[in-house]
Amino acid sequence: MKAAPEAQKRLLDLAELDAVIDRLAHRRRTLPELAEIDERSKQYARLVTQVIEAETEAGDLAREQSKAESDVDAVRTRADRDQKRLDSGAVTSPRDLSGLQSEIASLQKRQGDLEEVVLEIMERREAADTKVTDLVAQRDEVAAGLAASEGRRDAALTDIDKEAAEVQGRRGAVAGEIPADLLALYGKLKDQYGVGAAMLHGGRCQGCKVALSIAEMNRIKGAPHDEVLRCEECRRILVRTTESGL
């Protein structure tokens, strides 16, 4: 392939711009905020689940407490009714009096047992409500941190994309000065090796950093200036400049 020396030298400018674009793309993929967002998203999802489970437990205990309190009220109402009958003097039969007194005592014991159940449920419910409050606070804190990380990510991406667009614009201008066949070869080599062209500097390829042999240097010295050369080691386009040591 033949190409004017100046067109070949423009490949070095293109490679430099492509290196900047690649660095920006790498930076975009590896923003520290992305790892933060991933971790905090997982934390948030776990806490959302835990809050739902804790709220469900607290709700179940609230219903259990309400039922237990209703049972206490029912027993207390029945005991009060029996006590009023006893106090009214309407029951005169010793046998009936003994039965009523026995029932009142049984109801009072039942009431006491149920009140103990209510107290135990209230303690469990208080612990459950505290757990809900703590988990909600943790969830909201993680959500705030997640939003902050997303904000930093968006700001960083905006800066990166702005810079990348500016570099892409410059790249387009440089690419427009390079013959189509040379540009196509450069693009193919860049896809294969990451870098499509490298300078020959001081007898060394700057792409693979390998020093060329004397025989190879002599071959290059004898090659026409418009001949497109390739590094024998890394196969990139080898661009000659005044710093090539020829």
The SSE order reads HHHHEEHEE
Q: Summarize the biggest pleated sheet.
A: 4 strands, mixed
Poorly predicted tracts of residues: none
Helix content: over 70%
Rough shape? rod-shaped
Secondary structure tally, helices? 5
Strand order of the largest sheet: 2-1-4-3
Number of strands: 4
Structural class: mainly alpha
Terminal Cα span: 21 Å
Mean model confidence by pLDDT: 94
Strand percentage, roughly? 5-15%
Radius of gyration in whole Å, from Cα? 42 Å
Summarize the structure.
By secondary structure, this protein is mainly α.
Q: What are the defining features of this structure?
A:
246 residues, mainly alpha, 5 helices, rod-shaped
Description:
There is one protein chain. The protein has helices at about 5-30, 30-90, 95-175, 180-195, 215-220, and strands spanning about 195-200, 205, 230, 235-240. It is mostly helical. β3 and β4 (about 235-240) form a beta hairpin. α1 (about 5-30) runs antiparallel to α3 (about 95-175) and α2 (about 30-90) runs antiparallel to α3. It starts with a helix and ends in a 6-residue tail after the last strand.
Give the topology, please:
Blueprint: H1 5-29, H2 32-88, H3 94-175, H4 180-193, E1 197-201, E2 204-205, H5 214-222, E3 229-230, E4 237-240
Parallel strand pairs: 1-4
Antiparallel strand pairs: 1-2, 3-4
